[in-house]
Structure formats: structure tokens, C-alpha cells
Specification:
Chain lengths: ~110, ~110
Amino acid sequence: AQSVTQPDIHITVSEGASLELRCNYSYGATPYLFWYVQSPGQGLQLLLKYFSGDTLVQGINGFEADLKRSQSSFNLRKPSVQWSDAAEYFCAVGVGTASKLTFGTGTRLQVTL
Amino acid sequence: DGGITQSPKYLFRKEGQNVTLSCEQNLNHDAMYWYRQDPGQGLRLIYYSQIVNDFQKGDIAEGYSVSREKKESFPLTVTSAQKNPTAFYLCASSTTGDGQPQHFGDGTRLSIL
């Protein structure tokens, strides 16, 4: 069965510093990959998705993700974090046409001044 | 604007009582989903539906029921058989097909009195 692992439960970075959130997936082939962000008490907002093609995917708000098939990873990056980026981030994988997604357990990002 | 509306935002249930969470979408999406979110566990799929009058169990369907009589609506009933219903419930929708992202509502927080 497909699975998603986000190894970091909680990360703290300083405002203006770079950010990398890790996501590892387990599946026989490269699945569809997504990153979502959730503010407290809110739903999830899509940051970016990988469907096919270029393995460096650009998203909203300056986020990008890099698919590395050899490592089964899809890490989320941002060159300069802002205070407003503090939230919880979820990686998800989807397979085939069923549109079902499997979510990681999330990484909570704290941003310090 | 198109979107997903969940109501109510907060809901309280007495022991032995069934409660129904509402989810309505005006995105013309065929597929709809219900997730349960608990701290540190990410999102777990309760039920999903890819077409009107049809739905499938997800990973944690016990103690829950759904209906899909209209394309726009996918209500979730938390029955008295669900022994630990306190959680944050998220509804999502998507088009069907390869790699389609899901769009989320703002959630309903259910608590036990």
C-alpha cells in the first residue's frame, strides 16, 4: 500500500531563513504528489502538485518542491520564510484515477522573529 | 465564488446521540470526501463518493454513515456507535481523473458534552 512519511513533527526557523520540509513516499511507481498548508482551525489549501514532467514544481507564495525519484522524496522548499508562513504542512500522494489521497502526519512550522 | 461550505463550525454531541455534519460544494465536482483529523495523525479518510448515489468506505468508516443524493451535497452522520467522535472533520471535493487535487472546506469541530 502507498504511504507517506513526514519525518519532522515540528520545525522552527527564523524569519528570512530558508526552509525545507521533508516528505518521503512509498509506492512502486511515481505517484501524484501534493503539498497542502493548514492554518489553525481552517481547512487545507493546495500549495503545489506534481503530475508529470519537470521534477521541480513551483507553487503559490514562493514555495517549490523537488521530486527526487531515486530517494522517493518530494521536499518542500522556500528560500526566505515569512512570519505568515507559520502553519501546518501536509504532503499527500495519489494514485490512478480514483482521486483518493493518502496524507502524511504533517509538519508544524513555527517562525521566530 | 465557488467553494465548499461546511456547517456548523462547532458542534456538540451528547452521549448516545447521532449528529449530522453538512458539506455543500458549488464547484461542480463529481467526487467528495470526508476526513477526520486528530492531533499528530494527519488526515484519515472516512468515506468518499465519486458519483451521486454511490459511496465507498475509507480507512475508518466504523461509526459513521453518509449519503450522496445530490451532486452538491455529502452529509456525514456520526452515530452513537462512534465511541471517540471528538475530532476536527474536513470535507473535500475534486474532479475525477488522474492526479486531481482535492479542495477543502473549513471544517467542523465536534466535541462531546
